[in-house]
Amino acid sequence: MVKLVLVLGDQLSPEISSLKAADKSKDVVVMAEVGDEAIYVPHHPKKIAFIFAAMRKFAAELKVNGWRVSYTKFDDPERSDTICGELLRYAGTFSADEVLATEPGEWRVIEALQSCPVKVNILQDDRFIASHAEFETWAEGRKALRMEYFYREMRRKTGLMMEEDQPAGGQWNFDHDNRKAAPDAVHYAGPMRFEPDPITQEVLALVADRFPNNFGRLDDFWFATDAAQARQHLAHWVRYAAPHFGDFQDAMLRDEPFLYHGLVGLYLNAGLLDPLEVCQAVEKAWKDGDVPINAAEGFIRQIIGWREYVRGIYFLEGPNYTARNALNHQRKLPAVYWGGETKMLCMEKAVGQTRDEAYAHHIQRLMVTGNFALLSGISPQEVHEWYLAVYADAYEWVEAPNTIGMSQFADSGIIASKPYVSSGNYINKMSDYCKSCHYSVTEKTGEKACPFNLLYWDFLIRHRERFSKNARMGNIYRTWDRMADARKETVLKEAQGLLALMDAGGVI
Ligand code: FAD
Ligand code: DLZ
Ligand code: SF4
To answer: What atom in ligand 3 is closest to the CA of residue 438?
Structure first.
């Protein structure tokens, strides 16, 4: 009997388990652009265009390689709009009785496949270094699931930057060398840009027509849309930017959205690049003496450490992880996240570049937009949907642990040992934002006081009972306790004023 082979928009890897398990001579690959996937959150138009263009090009490559492919375009009047609907439709067409599918990266889609009235054989996604079983074994019996220890296992498993059984350079982690403040100038012209080819142009026209109101700029689309282009991008980055990646990993500059970041997340997560291939390219550059050890180790840690670890947590914690709200934050996401007016330059820049590029780097996500949402008490579910919608690299398995866990502390500390919150001081240290902001980062109260300075204390006092017990936060509470009562009162009153203004739709 013929089998259908489902390939989803983030499974664009020729070696994916569903294809490996199929028989090219008779099975039929199914790929479908469907409403269910395209509108379950209001994705950034560049993200939709990237996925549709990459899907179409991948389908064309499969055909060239001898596969039979049934591809549903978004404007096909026959389309059913769900993945399950398309499987049923093609099962009828080809008299297929079974579907081979690689495990989707989202519980919602796994559940949709499990409840689809056709036999779906869900295979492991082996494009990752650690399987679910390996992560579960590592996690079992541990009091705290700290990334650092998991990362060391992944170094041992891959042999990346290892000398026998010891880490190269004598230490596992070079992070203390990776936190330099923003540089005066960036010596990198930015990621490799690709002129949209005819397939991509057709998709861009479709997205412009069908998603005219989604938040985000569609013009100036330059992403790679196939594996060959993604590899060119990687080689370019390794050569020109990787040497500086570590030093300025946490820095933010108002006119440099990409700094020295890899922009590999969208390609890795869609399947156009393989994580080991990316790490080996960086390891080689380090061995050749072209990339310093702190940059190479820092980058490899992000991929075989953080990326694998958050996936492990997502699948370990189960489908209800995204509903967690440990701090009981209920505020609605303010308009500034959708491009509404703001006087906070850091927010304007982080959201503005998100709108333009469907990209912001880690510290912008964590310490600007994430920090502001957490301090303001915004519902983690609203924050989660925003991150899932606006970034070209966002799929729930990787986005949710970062948002619900690392950024919003809504999982009560599974991922972060303490909340990632800061006053304006941290942003000022790491960026050039504050010097041209309406607010003053050095003012702690008053009309010009940086909102982060006020909201920081409001958050900490709101959650004092929980966090004052945290050994790493005791000093912060002692600082508060030393403040004069009148000053404490002013800080909290002004913070409440800001929150009330935000709730009323005012400009902050
Ligand atoms: P680089 O800075 O060049 O890092 C290289 C790669 O390391 C990334 O491409 C990514 O694959 C991996 N990586 C680094 N940090 C992490 C991390 N914390 N978790 C997982 N992988 C990591 N990453 C996503 O891939 N998709 C998301 O939807 C996503 N949502 C996030 C939401 C929040 C609130 C936060 C704080 C972080 C999120 N991240 C997400 C992690 C990180 O911010 C992005 O991976 C990174 O900014 C992507 O840019 P880059 O490719 O230039 O990465
Ligand atoms: C993100 C996305 C979008 C926008 N559209 C599609 C689509 O039309 N068809 C498809 O197969 N996949 C799409 N995707 C990616 C899926 O949402 C992704 O495979 C699941 O969320 C599982 O990670
Ligand atoms: Fe952001 Fe405050 Fe700095 Fe303005 S002063 S850019 S609001 S941190």
So the answer is: 4
